[in-house]
Amino acid sequence: MEQLKMIIFERGGENCKLPRGFFFENYTESSENVGRWAAIIDSDTPFSGTPEAFFDSVIRKRPGLVPERDLFFITDSSGRAVATSAAVTNPDGTGYVHMFWSVPEARGKGLGKPLLTETLDRLASRGSFPATLTTDDFRLPAIKTYLRFGFVPMISPEPENDYENRWRAIFEKLGVDPGTVKTLYTK
Fold first, then answer.
1. What is the Cα–Cα distance from 180 to 38, expressed in whole angstroms?
2. Please, what are the domains in the chain?
């Protein structure tokens, strides 16, 4: 089953600052930073292969993604990277929120909104809108944050993906009236 897709047309929505004791850190090229990034992803979605190979496949080989410009971390006061995101400018000039992730023990600490704020601000500074993202049905806290920031579910007609019913189930779990959510139907 394909991931769900969402789109935001302009930078607006919420703005949030990091809680005390957390900091933004730009990615710089090093095997240590590849390992820090991979540890965040692997913390709840294990991948196969080496961190370097995984990083190559989803970061370095992603069209339009420049790791030193686009990728960043949230670190805690000890310097441990606990969350990451990439603000990608696609070759066509649109934006993409890529690999928006945190370690499980950092969830619920108020990092998601500042992480998304920073990602969207980076895209806005380059004029990279509209911007899209993909997510999974079970990532309810993230989806709730995306909706608050103005992301709109994208529903395409492929029957094998059943997007309409999947979104309906998500809205029900979130306690959201589907009639209050804008939705973009695509071909």
1. 37
2. 4-185 (3.40.630.30)
Looking at the whole model, is its pTM more than 0.85? yes
Amino acid code (one letter) for 167: W
**CA 70, 76, 79, 82 torsion-angle sign:** negative
Tokens, residue 29: 């090229």
Q: How far apart are CA 15 and CA 61, in angstroms?
A: 30
Judge whether 133 and 119 are in contact, CB under 8 Å.
no
Q: What is the dihedral of CA 37, 74, 41, 45, to 10 degrees?
A: 170
- For residue 141, the cross-strand partners are none
Average pLDDT by consecutive 10-residue portion of the chain (187 residues)? 93 88 98 97 92 96 97 97 98 97 95 96 97 96 94 89 92 92 85
Residue 175 and residue 154: Cα distance in Å, rounded?
19
